């Protein structure tokens, strides 16, 4: 499975905080990235949280309890064997600085075609966002 296949598949899923009741009915920005390892046949980094929250507020509480987005993504990916690296390659997951309607935020994204691809309620967006943590599995 390649990254473009995953991005095409993921684009068909609706935005749902926590992935919906089952956790697999859609995705939010973190579960969009968490679906990439699963698509590749790896364990689910979203195990234990998928389907347990349904609002942005609840999602932010989970991230805050983990110590912020970088700590949250790092912990989730390290438990499935991903390692932190310095230089991005296609297929990596990073924590990028992107603009949102609420202002700038650190969010997870997947590296594809030399850009970082993130997910928002309106679909995917790709840009050369500044990145402060990169993980490879």
Topology:
Elements: H1 3-11, H2 29-39, H3 56-66, H4 69-78, E1 83-85, E2 93-100, E3 103-112, E4 115-120, E5 123-127, E6 131-136
Antiparallel strand pairs: 1-6, 2-3, 2-6, 3-4, 4-5
Helix pairs in contact: 3-4
What does the model show?
The chain is an alpha+beta fold. It contains 4 helices and 6 strands. It has a single domain, classed as Alpha-Beta Complex (endopeptidase fold (from Nostoc punctiforme)), CATH 3.90.1720.
Question: Outline of this structure?
Answer:
30% of the residues lie in helices and 28% in strands. The chain has helices at 3-11, 29-39, 56-66, 69-78, and strands at 83-85, 93-100, 103-112, 115-120, 123-127, 131-136. α3 (56-66) crosses α4.
Attribute tags:
alpha+beta, endopeptidase fold (from Nostoc punctiforme)
The mean pLDDT is 96
| Largest beta sheet: strand ordering | 1-6-2-3-4-5
Order of helices and strands: HHHHEEEEEE
- Tell me the β content: 25-35%
Count of individual beta strands: 6
Distance from N terminus to C terminus (CA atoms, Å) equals 14 Å
Shape: globular
Number of helices: 4
Cα gyration radius (Å)? 13 Å
The appropriate CATH architecture is: Alpha-Beta Complex
State the helical fraction: 25-40%
* CATH fold call: endopeptidase fold (from Nostoc punctiforme)
The number of domains is 1
Unreliable stretches (pLDDT < 50, length at least 5) are none
CATH class (first level) name: Alpha Beta
Largest β-sheet summary: 6 strands, antiparallel
């Amino acid at each position: 499975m390649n990254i473009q296949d995953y991005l095409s598949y993921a684009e068909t899923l609706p935005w749902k905080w926590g992935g919906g009741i089952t956790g697999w009915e859609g995705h939010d920005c973190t579960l969009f990235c968490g679906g990439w390892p699963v698509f590749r046949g790896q364990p689910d980094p979203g195990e234990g949280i998928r389907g347990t929250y349904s609002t942005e507020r609840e999602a932010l509480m989970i991230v805050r309890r983990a110590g912020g987005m970088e700590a949250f993504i790092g912990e989730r990916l390290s438990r499935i064997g991903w390692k932190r690296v310095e230089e991005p390659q296609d297929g990596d997951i990073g924590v990028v600085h992107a603009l949102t309607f609420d202002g700038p935020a650190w969010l997870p994204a997947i590296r594809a075609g030399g850009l970082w691809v993130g997910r928002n309620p309106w679909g995917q967006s790709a840009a050369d966002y500044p990145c402060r943590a990169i993980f490879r599995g």
